[in-house]
Task: inverse folding
């Protein structure tokens, strides 16, 4: 096997606002594995301030992994516990290599183009006019579940935006999910959640920053809005996963395979969640279409009825052209479209 990696800077189509700041670009890396004339590609995607992968040694680790693979070391013996995004990238590259570079990692009615995956419409933070325009576009595109980023703008403005939605659409017409990305302080969170609950909110992700388990457990008990754990799951070892769910008792958890270390790690979370009657859905984590494709195909095999968070393929103006497309608020795999890897994945010299 020959292994290499290369970097790609994804450029957002618009300033993408979160409670952690505004994103204009996002670096990502790809593993390219070659064997017996076949080429497999997997994506290593991190988010600064959220991923646990050490930044200072990240590219050194990618070099090391490639060297080990080139020396014949088995992939499953390489220790990537501290580098979950690299573990995910390597896992999906190996799956693609096994699939002879077809990008068809999990065959299903999704990959044959017959069935789409219901997704939520993501509305990014910005000024009031920008957010309202996004909401109009999502509703016009027949989304029945929209997800709004909150926690960074003036709170009264966010309430006004929610009021405008509810003045036109009931909760049975439009389901509203919120994502605070840890933007509320523990001392103010419950009061804000009570005010937000006036607008029939489906759920809110990570109202306070991760690592404050006592405060989070109290919010999960007292909040009038069902709470979703997201960032809270990142970096938690297997021995402590069930303990975290038991301690906090959230209504839902969100799984991002590229930040959790791959599909097996994510499925562990699902097992513990279902044991304790906690519901879940899957979300991409700003990957390019390479990572999104792997996550979407795996997600379909889980047969969740909830709208998933897989609508990020349209975020970048320099994404990799792929068969993934959104129609009627569902993600489809259009078998008539082809992957166009040549510009972004040059052949080995």
Result:
């Amino acid at each position: 096997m020959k292994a290499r990696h290369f970097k790609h800077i994804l450029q957002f189509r618009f300033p993408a606002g979160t409670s952690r700041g505004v994103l204009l670009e996002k670096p990502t890396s790809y593993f390219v594995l070659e064997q017996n004339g076949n080429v497999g590609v997997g994506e290593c995607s991190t988010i600064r301030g959220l991923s646990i992968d050490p930044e200072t040694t990240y590219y050194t680790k990618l070099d090391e992994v490639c060297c080990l693979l080139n020396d014949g070391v088995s992939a499953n013996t390489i220790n990537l516990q501290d580098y979950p995004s690299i573990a995910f990238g390597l896992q999906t590259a190996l799956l693609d290599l096994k699939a002879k570079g077809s990008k068809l990692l999990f065959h299903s009615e999704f990959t044959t183009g017959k069935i789409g995956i219901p997704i939520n419409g993501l509305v990014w933070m910005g000024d009031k006019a920008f957010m309202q325009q996004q909401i109009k576009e999502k509703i016009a595109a027949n989304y029945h579940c929209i997800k709004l980023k909150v926690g960074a703008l003036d709170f009264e403005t966010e309430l006004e935006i929610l009021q405008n939605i509810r003045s036109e659409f009931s909760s049975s017409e439009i389901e509203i999910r919120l994502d605070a990305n840890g933007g509320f302080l523990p001392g103010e969170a419950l009061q804000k959640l009570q005010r937000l609950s006036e607008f029939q909110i489906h759920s809110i992700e990570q109202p306070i920053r991760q690592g404050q388990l006592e405060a989070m457990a109290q919010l999960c008990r007292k909040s009038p809005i069902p709470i979703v754990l997201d960032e809270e799951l990142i970096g938690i070892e297997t021995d402590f996963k069930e303990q975290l769910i038991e301690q906090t008792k959230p209504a839902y958890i969100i799984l991002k395979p590229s930040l959790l270390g791959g599909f097996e790690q994510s499925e562990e979370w699902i097992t513990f969640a279902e044991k304790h009657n906690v519901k879940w859905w899957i979300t991409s984590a700003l990957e390019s279409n390479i990572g999104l494709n792997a996550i979407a195909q795996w997600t379909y095999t889980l047969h969740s009825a909830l709208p998933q968070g897989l609508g990020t393929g349209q975020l970048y103006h320099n994404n990799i052209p792929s068969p993934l497309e959104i129609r009627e608020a569902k993600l489809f795999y259009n078998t008539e479209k082809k992957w166009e890897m040549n510009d972004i994945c040059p052949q080995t010299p």
